[in-house]
Amino acid sequence: MALRRAVHSDGFEAHARRAGNAVARMDAADYKGWLQRDFERWGKVIRDAGIVAN
After folding, report:
1. CA-CA distance, 37 to 32, in Å (whole number)?
2. What backbone torsions phi and psi does residue 23 show, to the nearest 5 degrees?
């Protein structure tokens, strides 16, 4: 709970924005969905580019 309060504080958000980060307040379910979509999107980019790990 303390971490959630800190991350959702106005001070943290202002600091993150000054550092050039985007701030999106999401609950766990929204974050999970965003993460899954991001993996799918970048996975396709990587596969289409033929990038492989050695």
Report:
1. 9
2. -120, 125
Token readout for 9 is: 């504080």
Residue with tokens 């303390």: 2
* Six-digit token string for 16: 């993150």
Angle at alpha carbon of residue 21, lines to 15 and 27, rounded to 5°: 90
Place of tokens 């993150």: 16
pLDDT digits (tens, 9 = 90+) for 13-54: 899 999 999 888 888 899 899 999 999 999 999 999 999 887
- AA letter at 11: G
Q: Provide the sign of the torsion angle of the four alpha carbons 22, 25, 28, 30, taken in this order.
A: negative
A 10 A CB-CB count for 9 gives 11
